[in-house]
Design the sequence.
């Protein structure tokens, strides 16, 4: 009795293992023979933005992927700081380690972002270097800016527009370098851009964060055969806090920047760089019970005519990855996804333009489905693709603006349907 | 316990494949494969009431003299023609699987599963919707996997040599896994989506049959009485109806050695399924009539080659766009045994033409392979 039953079961199991197959029917007989049709879409536009605000100073100091060295007169001025808190005391000559007793020449060599090569100044520009070491608050802009004075001048170099290539090289006072080497003191260099009157210009310089740092090049011998020493930036302060000190190997400070954004505007980019935060209040009957196929964040751009009015930059909508337990908005805006995550697409906008802009965020909105706010907050960040690199600032009207200008959310969704029953 | 395991296994075994939605044959809840074995298919179904491997007439089980397991595979190659052109598709089905076990000299027990209505299909078609003034171009892929299956536990009894009786208990089970994927031409703005749901069937029925044997004729008569049938998604009932009643009769001339020439007709009350689907889907009570022969052909060694042929005319259970769908088919088949009769193999080829008065037609080649193993 048992044996045939086992045999029968085996045969049934074998059949189960063989998948049925079906080729795709191209549907030429539809709709005649297709009683089931496509599911209908519904569309709605709602005032779903519950909170929107602008947070300046992001990314935080030292986290920039490029250093923005700008000079636009009284409108805008930024400077770059590069720290060499440890300098070598020896060099190799003829295969033998030798103590440094003389410095023949010294330069700071800073790579430039390639994109800048496409945009040249209209007149000569000068990059000046200053000794900005201080024992006081060493990351405060006002303190550091005051150190760019003649008695701390280290050197400069003037570039004609056509001579500006992929790096900026500024000669540095050899006496100062030798002093730092012999005394073991740290060496911190501030860079300042000077342009012709009325001619603003921006340099995008490489950083340690991006793997393209400025280098201090020292030739520590009068022998022409001596090879230069290339010293990478390093920061030792705050001491014993590597997580904080390492990013400060190079950073930018703002001497003159944009005014804080007014309440009726949310802004991205600019100087100091800022990011926008939005929290949505999506009706639960849409968020939980439907399938969203399109979610367009409709923002009305407000023209910003301060700096680089026509220089377009990408504006990215980004998912915020911070856990809901992180309630500080500035902290949340530092934990954002990479551009393109969840299929969120960017827009290429010029600061001086205006009009309604549509950011497609369906990929993000879908993650909110059936998730409580404690698990998946309905939040979004906006940031400039050139933040802390270019001064362009893109402004949008906020929820504090006139009703017709406020942010809205356009949702196209598939309602719950009773599909599948013939 | 063992019986429960067997039932579960049979339920799993036969999701049954089927035809595409954009065709005549799988309207409504699907295509009726007929519940015939490959041998019966070779005769156009004419031997259906007399064939022990077709789970139709439980009385025919008594022809089985030894324990066996039977499996059937049926690929179908189909062309649907409409004013917009032709679609050629193929599908593979496993319409019948069962086992039988003689008990004593007069009883045979059987457990098997067969496809009652096979709805497996995949169709892709473009559509356009206007959403708040925007024209949205999209493509829809509509996929259905699964079937309404008939799991039968049956017994056949031979009280006297000329009379055979049988009864069967049926569990109507199975599911339809529905999957709709809509993708959009503008992938930057719109995100495609897939929605799925599983429709489950649960019902019961009972059947009985009789077979009378004379020197030159055999006659079989069977009927199925449907019980309630429920359509549900998870634990939510969506509709209820009754399992269609059915009756059928075959008569065969057996005066030629090892041969049968038969005719059959049957009636299925498909309209009983009316309450299960949407109001627009109506079952059609249908006749299924066939004539065919299963003749002993040439011998190859000690092996007899059976040659079969038949013609079948039936109405399919569900109307297409309100019009009845008629199917006419011719069939031919072969059968023989291997391994000292421990393995029986059958093959049938069927050419079907399906039509309705709506300007669309369908033609199909169906190949049927049946394997019987006597362990």
Sequence:
């Amino acid at each position: 009795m048992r044996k045939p039953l086992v045999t029968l079961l085996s045969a049934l199991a074998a059949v189960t293992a063989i998948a049925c197959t079906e080729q795709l029917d191209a549907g030429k007989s539809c709709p005649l023979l297709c009683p089931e049709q496509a599911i209908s879409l519904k569309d709605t536009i709602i005032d779903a933005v519950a909170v929107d605000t602008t947070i300046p100073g992001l990314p935080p100091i030292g986290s920039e992927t490029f250093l923005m060295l700008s000079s636009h007169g009284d409108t805008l001025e930024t400077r770059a700081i590069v720290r060499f808190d440890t300098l070598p005391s020896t060099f190799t000559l003829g295969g033998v380690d030798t103590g440094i007793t003389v410095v023949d020449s010294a330069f700071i060599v800073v790579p430039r972002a390639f994109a800048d090569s496409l945009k040249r100044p209209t007149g000569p520009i000068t990059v000046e270097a200053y000794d900005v070491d201080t024992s006081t608050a060493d990351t405060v802009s006002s303190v550091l800016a005051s150190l760019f004075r003649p008695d701390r001048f280290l050197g400069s170099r003037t570039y004609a527009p056509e001579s500006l290539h992929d790096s900026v090289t500024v000669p540095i006072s050899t006496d100062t370098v030798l002093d730092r080497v012999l005394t073991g003191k740290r060496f911190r260099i501030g860079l300042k851009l000077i342009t012709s009157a009325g001619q603003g210009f921006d340099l995008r310089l490489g950083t340690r964060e991006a793997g393209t740092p400025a280098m201090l090049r020292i030739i520590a011998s009068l022998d022409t055969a001596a090879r230069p020493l290339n010293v990478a930036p390093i920061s030792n302060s705050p001491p014993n806090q590597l997580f904080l000190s390492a990013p400060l190997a190079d950073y930018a400070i703002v001497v003159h920047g944009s005014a804080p954004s007014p309440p009726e505007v949310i802004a991205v980019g600019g100087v100091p760089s800022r990011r926008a935060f939005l929290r949505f209040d999506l009706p639960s009957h849409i968020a939980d019970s439907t399938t969203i196929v399109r979610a367009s964040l409709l923002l009305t751009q407000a023209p910003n005519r301060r700096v680089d009015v026509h220089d377009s930059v990408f504006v990215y909508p980004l998912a915020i990855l911070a856990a809901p337990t992180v309630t500080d908005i500035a902290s949340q805006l530092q934990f954002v996804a990479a551009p393109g995550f969840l299929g969120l697409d960017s827009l290429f906008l010029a600061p001086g333009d205006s009009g309604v802009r549509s950011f497609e965020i369906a990929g993000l909105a879908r993650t909110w489905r059936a998730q409580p706010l404690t698990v998946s907050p309905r939040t979004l960040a906006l940031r400039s693709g050139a933040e802390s690199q270019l001064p362009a600032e893109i402004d949008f009207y906020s929820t504090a603006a006139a009703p017709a200008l406020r942010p809205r959310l356009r949702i196209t969704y598939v309602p719950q349907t009773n599909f599948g029953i013939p | 316990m063992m019986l429960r395991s067997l039932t579960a296994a049979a339920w799993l075994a036969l999701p049954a494949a089927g035809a595409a939605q954009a065709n005549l044959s799988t309207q409504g809840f699907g295509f009726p494969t007929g519940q015939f074995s490959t041998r019966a298919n070779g005769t156009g179904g004419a031997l259906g009431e007399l064939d022990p491997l077709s789970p139709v007439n439980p009385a025919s089980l008594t022809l089985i003299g030894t324990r066996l397991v039977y499996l059937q595979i049926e690929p179908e190659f189909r062309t649907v023609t409409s004013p917009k052109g032709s679609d050629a598709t193929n599908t593979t089905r496993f319409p019948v699987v069962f086992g039988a076990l003689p008990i004593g000299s007069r009883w045979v027990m059987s457990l098997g599963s067969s496809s009652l209505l096979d709805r497996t299909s995949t169709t892709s078609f473009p559509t356009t919707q206007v959403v708040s003034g925007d024209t949205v171009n999209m493509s829809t892929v509509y996929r259905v996997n699964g079937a309404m299956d008939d799991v039968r536990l049956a017994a056949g009894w031979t009280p006297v040599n000329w009379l055979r009786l049988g009864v069967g208990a049926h569990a109507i089970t199975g599911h339809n896994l529905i999957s709709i994927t809509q993708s959009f031409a503008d992938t930057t703005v719109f995100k495609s989506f897939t929605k799925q749901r599983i429709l489950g069937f649960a019902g019961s029925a009972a059947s009985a049959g009789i077979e009378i044997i004379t020197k030159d004729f055999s006659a079989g008569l069977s009927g199925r009485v449907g019980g309630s049938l429920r359509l549900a998604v998870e634990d939510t009932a969506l509709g209820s109806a009754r399992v269609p009643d059915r009756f059928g009769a075959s008569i065969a001339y057996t005066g030629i050695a090892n041969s049968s020439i038969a005719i059959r007709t049957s009636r299925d009350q498909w309209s009983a399924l009316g309450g299960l689907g949407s109001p627009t889907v109506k079952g059609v009570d249908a006749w299924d009539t066939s004539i065919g022969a299963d003749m002993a052909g040439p011998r190859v060694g000690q092996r007899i080659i059976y040659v079969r042929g038949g013609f079948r005319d039936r109405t399919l259970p569900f109307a297409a766009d309100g019009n009845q769908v008629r199917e006419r088919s011719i069939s031919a088949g072969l059968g023989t045994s291997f391994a000292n009769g421990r393995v029986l193999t059958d093959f049938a080829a069927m050419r079907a033409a399906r039509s309705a008065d709506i300007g669309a037609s369908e033609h199909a080649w169906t190949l049927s392979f049946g394997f019987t193993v006597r362990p």
